[in-house]
Design goal:
The chain has 170 residues and is of the alpha/beta class. The chain is 42% helix and 18% strand. The chain has a five-stranded parallel beta sheet with strand order 3-2-1-4-5, sandwiched between helices. α1 crosses α2 and α3 runs parallel beside α4. The longest helix has 25 residues. The protein is globular. It starts with 8 loop residues before the first strand and ends with a helix. 31% of the residues are buried.
């Protein structure tokens, strides 16, 4: 798939991060409820060599190898987020190009575009990164930003439990 969707799908941006796995899980639940297709999209750009055009090319991964690595990232992320059985029902799309542009193109005509985000921004910065901001600004379909689930209160309660408080040495 290199163009827009058929109008009966949910597109989700996947980059291998925990926020993208959260978005993938949320989008899979929505796709099941709405009886729609789920399209997981991973955009990648070739690694720049940073050398002058006349300099010899350094030995590094080829564009084909980079594409294969991007496909492995997408497959592993889908499998980790949804499990081995569910991941076969997900259409996986790997496209070379700037992430925001690729996601906007892939989501054209979809029901919505789902993106992951951190639960809270650091130092007063927004929790949505530059790709998310561009998608929110320019999308022609609804965009949902899915936060990473907070850590369970269980671990916080364990640290603050009276039994542990009394066992500390001063």
């Amino acid at each position: 798939m290199t163009g827009q969707t058929d109008g009966n799908s949910i597109v989700v941006g996947v980059d291998g991060s925990e926020p993208s796995r959260a978005a993938l899980r949320w989008a899979a639940e929505q796709a099941a409820v709405l009886h729609t297709d789920l399209v997981a999209v991973h955009a990648w750009e070739p690694a720049a060599n940073g050398h002058a055009p006349y300099a010899p090319a350094p030995a590094g991964p080829t564009v084909a190898q980079q594409h294969e690595q991007a496909a492995r990232v997408l497959t592993a992320t889908v499998r980790e987020a949804l499990g081995p059985r569910t991941c076969d029902a997900v259409l996986r799309v790997v496209v070379e190009g700037p992430p925001a542009r690729v996601l906007l193109q892939q989501a054209r005509g979809a029901l919505l575009l789902a993106l992951g985000r951190k639960a809270h921004g650091n130092f007063g910065l927004p929790s949505v990164g530059p790709v998310g901001r561009e998608c929110l600004r320019s999308a022609t379909v609804p965009v949902v930003t899915v936060p990473v689930a907070r850590r369970s209160q269980e671990s916080v309660e364990a640290v603050n439990s009276p039994s542990l408080a009394g066992s500390r040495t001063s």
